[in-house]
Amino acid sequence: MRVSLLGLGTVGAGVAQLLAANRADIARKVGCGIEVVRVLVRDPGRARATTLPPGVLTADPEVALGDPAVDAVVEVMGGIQPALALIVRALRAGRPVVTANKDVMSEHGRAVWQAAAEGGTDVFFEASVGGGIPIVRALKESLAANRVRRVAGILNGTTNFILTRMTQQGLSQQQALADARALGYAEADPSADLDGLDAARKLAILSSIAYNARCLPREVFRQGIREVAAADIAYAARLGAVIKLLAISELRPGGVSMRVHPTLLPRAHPLAAVHDAFNAIYVQGDAVGEAMFYGRGAGALPTASAVVGDLMQAARFLDRGGAGTGCTCFHERAFVPLDALVSRFYVRLRVMDRVGVLAQIAGVFGRSGVSILSVQQTPVFEGATAARAPEADPHGEECAELILTTHEVGEDRMAEAMEGLGRLAVVSGVGAVLRLAPEDL
Ligand SMILES: NC(=O)c1ccc[n+]([C@@H]2O[C@H](COP(=O)([O-])OP(=O)(O)OC[C@H]3O[C@@H](n4cnc5c(N)ncnc54)[C@H](OP(=O)(O)O)[C@@H]3O)[C@@H](O)[C@H]2O)c1
Under a CB-based contact definition with an 8 Å cutoff, are residues 210 and 195 in contact? Predict the structure, then answer.
């Protein structure tokens, strides 16, 4: 099978390396050799550590896709354009496409699948979610007999690394981000990671497969990790929990709900043991019960593992005829906004350390119909490991930190309560408002 490789960066170089390293076994497994005959890059003149034959590199998409000898296309250039146009072109011409591109698959899945249908071929996108973790094909094929009820995952390695460092070493978020940058886990602009956009895109892809309906990133409620402080990690530990950026989607009677937010997760939950830059996806289905998939969500070879696995699948179909599993979004489902859900909340407040404060706060919660589950009051606690002396507020009055958790309550009531707290003179600041994991997760 002759392959045109669009992109020779981190993943593209990993794909070329893996195809070369395991060449003989790969050929035996699929019944034919897989050879890279064209490589599209921006700058073919740049020196690269690759064993690809000279002359395969080009900056001209016409050369990369116009060659009639090309059987299949691998898109690992990233971004929406020109990647989308090249994917669509290849599919329309009847060439199977393997892509690692979560942006294209989550935002433009419909156009991609339409092109695949027109060309009578398939698109394989295992690497677009969870890097090397086999979750896309697991949901599409191995678990296809299930009605999936929920998918919950740690889908972003950068934020998981940051939260792990904060938890295990008591670092501030800034210090942990600096470590992530130094180790190459965070980009110069980490917004897509910190604000949950990367995880939201991956969740939209997983949800589309899990519930057989087109789910879009803009339908995902998003709260990133920026407001999670070292103090929250320490307070969560006292509550027997760890904080993880969870991506959760559920099939509900009204449709599909999707959310990405920092979540207090019981320490004993399997997802709580997913550390550093690792990813994991926890699936709840009516037949399988619970299944968890764990591994490296990024990196040259882990991602290449998924890309080359997909290429081998494409080779089998080319060899034996027929396309792959194809698009499985055959249901129309409404999306359920976060407002329609109930959650348990964690709230960290800075309050004046005086008589009657708790009663005022309880009054605000009560009037909004929010039932308090637990309350802890401590002197203001800035570090993760050592309680400091009580701090004075700007008016010279001593402050305390109040940590509340609530029973399940609707978003609107909680928002009303938080507005009410903001109006109380005894509340000098809201540190964080986070959600607890669903009780049946
Ligand atoms: N990195 C990971 O661990 C990882 C994990 C999972 C999924 N992915 C996905 O895999 C894809 C690739 O990621 P990456 O990290 O390998 O990216 P990367 O290192 O930035 O590499 C991009 C490659 O595409 C080429 N390219 C980009 N735009 C081009 C254009 N307009 N015309 C021609 N060539 C172009 C670049 O050419 P030059 O070499 O000449 O600059 C480079 O070779 C992305 O969709 C990403 O989200 C990455």
Answer: no
| 202 a catalytic residue | yes
pLDDT of residue 393: 54
Q: List pLDDT tens digits, range 239-280.
A: 999 999 999 999 999 999 999 999 999 999 999 999 999 999
Name the closest-CA residue to atom 14, ligand 1: 10
| Options 3.30.360.10, 3.20.20.80, 3.40.220.10, 3.30.365.10; CATH of 136-296 | 3.30.360.10
> Distance from the CA of 408 to the center of ligand 1, in angstroms?
43
Mean pLDDT of the chain: 94
- Could you tell me which of 14, 7, 9 has the C-alpha nearest to residue 300? 14
Q: Does the domain at residues 341-436 carry the CATH identifier 3.40.50.300?
A: no
The dotted CATH code for 2-132+300-320 is 3.40.50.720
Are the C-beta atoms of residues 310 and 317 closer than 8 Å to each other? no
Q: What is the pTM of this model?
A: 0.95
H/E stretch holding 43: none
- Atom number of ligand 1 nearest to Cα 44: 40
pLDDT in tens, 375-396: 999 876 444 333 344 455 555 5
- Tell me, what amino acid is at 337? P
Among 189, 303, 307, 310, the mutation site with the greatest number of ligand 1 atoms within 8 A of its Cβ is 303
Residue 46 CA: nearest ligand 1 atom is: 40
